[in-house]
Amino acid sequence: MAEQFSKNNTEIVIETAPNPTFCVIWLHGLGADGHDFAPIVPELRLPSTVAVRFIFPHAEHMPVTINGGYRMPAWYDILSLDGSNRKIDEAGILATRNRVRALITRENARGIPSDRIVLAGFSQGGAMAYTVGLTQPERLAGIMPLSAYMPAPDLIQAEFSANNRDTPIFAGHGLQDDIVLLPMGIDARDRAQQLGCTVEWHTYPMAHSVCIEEIRDIGKWLAGLISKVEA
């Protein structure tokens, strides 16, 4: 496995073999960076017959309102997580969506079409996976939000892409999550289903994290997607 670090320090790239034909863009959670999930790649146990490029971007540092304005890596400012009176940083969400779309366009230019690209993310990164994936004009291979929620459901509703109605979605959540509460994950799942999407929903006996059982399930799911597009 070859690991490459970008020169501009905006991302980590891991290729499981030369000349990748499949890509996973994986967004980290609030306060983390691209290093957070890079070690998971070998644990996924993907087929050695297919070369996969994993891209782990680093979010920019910005003040985060719910954390007292403390500057940290974030995909957008979180003003409130109160489900009954949710405030959103739509400008920040759209800016990150543009950045992820630029990554998709770059991979297209490198020879990987959109229907061979999975958008994944944890927590705030998973919130962006939902937002970008469900509004992306071109069909994607899959969407994988982990311990996530929908930060701007009205935006997704207004700009929902019918091309991704049938795109497989893997959503995992911890039963003891005290950061992104389980009902928020269920709400996101239900909203996706109301749009006509099929969500493969998994819960695990964990807090706001990932566990080995979830990693194994992700690996099986990704392997299934790869086998379909490579068939």
**First-residue to last-residue Cα separation:** 23 Å
Q: Cα-atom Rg, whole angstroms?
A: 16 Å
**Spatial order of the strands in the main sheet?**
1-2-4-3-7-8-9-10
Shape by Cα distribution: globular
Indicate the mean pLDDT: 92
Question: What is the N-to-C succession of helices and strands?
Answer: EEEEEEHEHEHEHEH
Q: Helix segment count?
A: 5
Characterise this structure.
It is built from 5 helices and 10 strands; from the N terminus they run E-E-E-E-E-E-H-E-H-E-H-E-H-E-H. It has 231 residues and is an alpha/beta fold. It has a single domain (2-230), classed as Rossmann fold (3-Layer(aba) Sandwich). The strands form 2 sheets. An 8-stranded mixed β-sheet has the order 1-2-4-3-7-8-9-10, sandwiched between helices. Strand 9 (169-174), helix 4 and strand 10 (199-204) form a beta-alpha-beta unit. The longest helix has 20 residues, at 90-109. It is globular and about 45 Å long.
Offer a few descriptive terms.
231 residues; alpha/beta; Rossmann fold; eight-stranded mixed β-sheet; two-stranded antiparallel sheet; 5 helices; 10 strands; 31% helix; globular
Record the SSE blueprint.
Layout: E1 2-5, E2 11-15, E3 22-27, E4 52-57, E5 61-64, E6 70-73, H1 90-109, E7 117-122, H2 124-135, E8 142-146, H3 153-159, E9 169-174, H4 182-194, E10 199-204, H5 212-230
Helix pairs in contact: 2-3
